[in-house]
Amino acid sequence: MSEDNKVTDAQSGLLNRLLNKVEVIGNKLPDPAVMFAGLLVIIWFLSLIFSQFTYSEIDPRTGVEITVNNLLAPTAMANFLATMVNTFMYFAPLGVVLVAMLGIGVAERSGFINVGIKLLLNTTPKALLTPMLILVAIVSHTAVDAGYVLVIPLGGVIFYAAGRHPLAGIAAAFAGVSGGFSANFVPSAIDPLLQGITQTAAQMHNPEVMLNPLNNWGFTAASTLLVVAVGWYLTDKVIEPRLKATEIDGDTDAMPQIEEVSPKDRKAFYSASFTMLLGVIILIAVTVPEGSALRDPETAAIASFNAPLMQSIVPLIFLLFWVPGIVHGYVSGNFKESRDVITAMTKSMEGMAYYMVMAFFCALFIKAFGDSNLGILLSIKGANILQALALPGGVTLVGIIFLVAFINLFVGSASAKWMLIAPIFVPMLMQLGISPDLTQAAYRVGDSSSNIITPLLPYFPLVVVYCQRYVKGTGIGTLVSLMLPYSVALLVLWSAFLLIYWGIGLPLGLQSSYTYPA
């Protein structure tokens, strides 16, 4: 082992010990589904205890003093059982995510998304290799987990083929896929998933609140530039220079190679891309006319909650990936018959099985939390404390970002964390005049920034294996030491970016706002 490697190991020793403690603590946490089931039971007993007291806080929904409802009362338990099925069926995030995934799953399993990623990477000039790799990694979120299994290993392959250190390519791709998880100019399934949770939490404060699935699209699209710029600089100026003394001692003959895109796959991709472009043109053509059925029937506006176009965002995401995916599948030969399309959709739903189990318990927990009135009581009391502290709104948002980044070290699932804390933070900040759209944007910054330094991320061990193909001695500490600069830089600069974005007043997304009438 070289002297430089010894210094690096010594520097990462303290960090490794800290991460080992985090890993031990994190491994003791129950599965998110079990966690929500346990929280449901806790809410029941808390409702019994706090229902014995009276409170002076006024419920903004009714204008009367808040009363905590005892969920263990016989009538409440009977209602819980009678409405359990509907509570799950009408859980807002469930339907939108499953519908979006049906279309994206076909596009992914037909090869449409994978071929597109390979074409982008294969035609990139060497000088732009790093930013293009990070950009492709960010766009891969559209296919949910495709980036982890396709783009990250390809990052090592293309850097190695270009004469650069492969671990730098893996780090850059990992930073884009996971660190930039909430940056994307292409709508993906994560958008309606988080929006559904946010809307459910906001309705605990005001049942009339409706949010657009793309309520953060403007911010996430602009954030793409930030993540690419930060990742580009750190990879070329910080990470790769540190790796110069790190010997590549893996079996180079067994290393994965960049597969050439066959003429048949290329033809299929272009056919599918043309189909997608044609679909967008048709959508624009039928929306532009004043009398379009997709406009608000009363105001003729396009960006209106009552406009069918805005209510069709998720079905449109489904169609814009489903149809091109079918075209690519048949032209490439990956789909032979209609049954193959259905199989692809079935496989995508199989991948969502765990999410549906978690959503079942989460839906019951959120419903109980709302019915008990503990959520609104906590949010009002919390808002009163924050108002008494008189902290600027920006300070409050940054505090939430850093808190979420810390929680992310223990609970890796973006949806599980948001399901857990949204019912508290969203209504609380609504009390302070901060919109659910802005609160969700702050959450996304914190959630993304620390993804790449927690060994509890499900794909973290897989990335370690990718690194070991090139450097046999790579361990968790090695990968964390590579990713820590990205994490810290994203946490600080992305938080500042959100504050600047907010200060300028740029649109967060469709039908979104920064403020809420307190």
TrEMBL record:
One of its GO terms (biological process) is p-aminobenzoyl-glutamate transmembrane transport. The keyword Transmembrane helix applies. The keyword RNA-binding does not apply. One of its GO terms (molecular function) is secondary active p-aminobenzoyl-glutamate transmembrane transporter activity. The chain crosses the membrane at residues 33-51, 88-107, 119-140, 170-190, 214-234, 268-289, 309-331, 352-369, 389-411, 418-436, 448-467, 479-504. Keywords: Membrane, Transmembrane, Transmembrane helix. This is Aminobenzoyl-glutamate transporter.
